[in-house]
Write a structure and sequence with these properties.
2 domains, seven-stranded mixed β-sheet, alpha+beta, about 475 residues, six-stranded antiparallel β-sheet, FAD/NAD(P)-binding domain
Length: about 475
Amino acid sequence: MECTTSTDFILIGAGAGGSAAASILRKMEVPFMWYEGGENMNHVLTDTPHAEYPSSEIPNWDSAYLPQLKSEDGRDLGYNLPRVVGGMTHHYEGVNFWTLEDTVRSMDISPDEEENVLQYVKNVTLAHVQCDTFDPTYHTHARSPFEPVPFESIMSLNGCYYGKCDGPSCDLNTHVFQKHPNWYKSSSSTEYGTDNLQTGFEAIELIKKQNRITGVRMLDAQNTSHVVCSQKAVLLAAGVMGDARLLLPHVSSYKFFGQPYLFHLETDLVYSDGCDEGSKSGGTFAKIPQTDTESGFLSVVGLCKVNGTTRLAYLAPEMINPNMTGTIKYVDGQIIAQTNYNDNMRDTLVSDVAHAAKQLYGISTLPSFVVDNWAGGGWHWTGQSDLSHRSRVHKVDNLYLADALGVTGTTSGWTSWNARVQGGLAAYRAVKNSENLCDHTRFQYRSLKCCMNMSDSSYFNTDTCIMMKSQYVDDGCC
């Protein structure tokens, strides 16, 4: 292998995870090179109000390079994966919603990481979040930009969006009813900056020697091949689907959680004057699972009254269901993402929405229009622990997941937030492990209270402790 160039750390991808990872690497003052296959279109965010936002200009990945998503009965399922700096956050509506409990749990965040990464991501990202006022007619909890959502079952909160209001008024609670001409979106890359980023470089191969990734083979915009060598670690941030082509030559398969979201739109309420005057509002509507087996949902919501009765004008509920899983692997030369998604899971999502709507808004049944016209929407992806532990890919000493694939569990927050946190964690962990892997692992083991009585699992995640101990042995630390 002949290196075109060499550095300590290589970061692939500039979406939500990659942007935060790059910022942490800059903060820790380590040498790294950062690559993105798409182009930088941040000027669209800063120059064009969201009311006129030309999202159709954002290119998607060539489907020939991406996994083909299928249901358990063999149906093809569509999804989008934008190829642009900022990734999915570039044409994301920008809702901010997270709970501290599942953010910490699903990423195995230790106390020092909560201080050095989670707090940092909060300070950067949430400075770009604006929240509207609490509306007691519809909302159960007041929401502020910097605080997590309480871990309660059914809630309706005022609207909080990534972006800024550049004018006299932006009524974000009515965001789904009207695109405000003063509202400008933001993405992860506008929050964290793009210093040191090289665009138009496609990562096509990880070069492995024994248990280490020693380099990444790249193609530039002119289709010229480059080999970028890594002295310490490689971080992948191309997303659950985008990472597949790089990972699968080194792992036979990996699992993921794919949480679909569906749509409901009452056109006579959103696009015409069917609502009572002054009754339009909305924000976030959620049923948060209180156990590891319970299902729920998270949704943008538009509400209004018709002749004094509350109606659901708009919904886009994302499933929160630990049973919704899939596996990515090669099948006859094609990357296939096989899910167990079926109509029963969709019916569970509709049932969760109906139960919550009745409890909060007194809506006894969803109109038949809602139930009969659910159509397949997008997906919020996270990973599972079969592939990685605390960001590091199993059996590879120096390969880290700096995106939602490193979030090993279902969460009740939107993926764009979780990916930012995971990107920062992967960068922090990669640097700390490169300095002294064994010492850092031992420190984390103790800080997560794994040395306490193993019968008292209230202090720690038992599976995390067992896996850390196993990893310590595998790394030759004993």
